[in-house]
Design goal:
heterodimer; A: 112 residues; seven-stranded mixed β-sheet; B: 114 residues; mainly beta; four-stranded antiparallel β-sheet
Chain lengths: 112, 114
């Protein structure tokens, strides 16, 4: 069976500090991977998606970046966090473009 | 660009009643997929139901059913015999065939009142 792991579960970081959120999928190969951010009143905002190693599409041009160093690993990063980066971050994977997405447990990020 | 609109930020209904959540989307494609997800207080995203645009028959999953109106680009979710455990945020999502992007709406917060 397939599982998705996302960590950490919660994170409190000062403004200007770096960020690294990690997501890994087990039990499948070459999944489509996604990073979403959930903020109050804005639903699930798609940040990045990836169809393969080094194939990453950005939906939101901000101070965030994503990398996929391995087939089943997806990392969300920032060099300098802003207060507006606070939110709930969700990683997800899909088999193909027509299947549903499976989500990780999420990371609550608070930038102080 | 594909967009998904959920015009009801919050709804509440008495237990055992039926409730319908609205969702509209915008696309120029003819083949696509639609999903409803539930996010309970635990914040774990759970798939409720999915619909393929090429299928005319509305999808159903136990107490959950959809009303898919392709011409109107509408995809509403009906919850019958609502239960306390249905209290959650509900998100509508859209994906074009051949496109890996999965777009979500802003969500509807549903509260089931005992």
């Amino acid at each position: 069976s397939q599982t998705i792991h996302q960590w950490p579960a919660t994170l409190v970081q000062p403004v200007g500090s770096p960020l690294s959120l990690e997501c890994t999928v087990e039990g499948t190969s070459n999944p489509n991977l996604y990073w979403y951010r959930q903020a109050a009143g804005r639903g699930l905002q798609l940040l990045f998606y990836s169809i393969g190693i080094d194939q990453i599409s950005s939906e939101v041009p901000q101070n965030l970046s994503a990398s996929r160093p391995q087939d089943r690993q997806f990392i969300l990063s920032s060099k300098k966090l802003l207060l507006s980066d606070s939110g709930f971050y969700l990683c997800a994977w899909r088999w193909t473009d027509y299947t549903e997405a499976f989500f990780g447990q999420g990371t609550r990020l608070t930038v102080v | 660009a594909q967009t998904v609109t959920q015009s009801q930020p919050e709804m509440s209904v008495q237990e055992a009643e039926t409730v319908t959540l609205s969702c509209t989307y915008d696309t120029s494609e003819s083949n696509y997929y639609l999903f409803w997800y539930k996010q309970p207080p635990s914040r774990q995203m759970i798939l409720v139901i999915r619909q393929e645009a090429y299928k005319q028959q509305n999808a159903t999953e136990n107490r959950f059913s959809v009303n898919f109106q392709k011409a109107a680009k509408s995809f509403s979710l009906k919850i019958s015999d609502s239960q306390l455990g249905d209290t959650a945020m509900y998100f509508c999502a859209f994906a074009n065939f051949g496109n890996e992007k999965l777009t979500f709406g802003t969500g509807t917060r549903l509260t089931i009142i005992p």
